[in-house]
Hints:
By secondary structure, this protein is of the alpha/beta class. It folds into two domains: 24-130 and 271-308, 3-Layer(aba) Sandwich (Rossmann fold), CATH 3.40.50.2300; 132-268, 3-Layer(aba) Sandwich (Rossmann fold). 46% of the residues lie in helices and 18% in strands. It has twelve helices and 14 strands. The strands form three sheets. Strands 2-1-3-4-5-13-12 form a seven-stranded mixed beta sheet, with helices on both faces. The protein has a four-stranded parallel beta sheet with strand order 7-6-8-9, with helices on both faces. A three-stranded mixed beta sheet has the order 10-11-14, with helices on both faces.
Amino acid sequence: MRKIKNSLVIMMVSLLVVVWLTPAIAKKPLLGFILPTLQEERWAIDRDGFIEEAHRLGAEVLFQASNNDERLQTTQVENMLTQGIDILVLGAVNSSAAAVFVDKAHDEGIPFIAYTRPILNAEVDYFVWHDLYDVGRLIAEYTLKAKPKGNWVLIEGDPGDDATAFMREAFFKVVQPAIDRGDIKIVIDQHALKWSTENALKIAENALTRYNNNIQAICCWNDGTARGAIRALQEQGMDAEDCYTTGQDGDIANLQYIVEGKQGMTVYKPCFPLGAAAARAAYAVVTGGKPETKGVLWNGRVNVPLITVENIPVDKNNIVEALIKPGYVSVDEVYRNIPRDQWPKID
């Protein structure tokens, strides 16, 4: 009889342990992911990389995009923090104003990862990015090689995005000697609000009108703004030989412009791997692990550990080797507007 009672006690205790553990076992980590926009195609690729990797790891994702609207992003952050997320990964619309989001997340005991755009003066846990100093440097070096003398126009990104300032700092470290020599003259230096293509178009049109098309380079901080500049150049019958135009992101439309001779270069940022890296970092944090980092970035308050994916500078000379052969993009996507008999042969 005692053996039967003991067996029943053991069974009941075991059952209680199973019931107690089951919710913890069954609950998948919930990763909150907010991007500033889906306006440029690269952001959709970031999203897909994050979600696919999160699901592979066994996590769920709560995703939203903010349409480059600060107020909308504020509402999204506040709502997401009430929906049971275990971590928040955020690409800020306005980096300078996003420190409050970090504080709000930490007040709820939720870790915070900044994505692609640095957030200053906040206790950010990690920062996942393509090195923005490197992007500014590459834009400057390629432009200086292509157009070592003449009038340059700068179309920088949104002034509320600290990425803009990082790129500017690196850019001027490269070109300042040429400016001091008088080889280069920055005749226009303006910001495209909200990284808008239309704003960039107006800046470029005004610059070409003011200087009677005597512009040798238009340095754009991303591909969306480059598309605006290229539209303005096309209206004047000008191409990349006449006026060298830069970008960042490697949008398909801009890669097409490069092989068509309309755009000089872009900095391709492998966004799917970056999104996946952010998902791995977020999963590691919420499951008690530690993401692999490479250096730190002082953000005015703390040294933020960096998770970095390498940039790839691209022009017409290396686009096949750098992007098509590795499989980042297909020859059909890039060369679709070029006669097929002029397509490169891909081994």
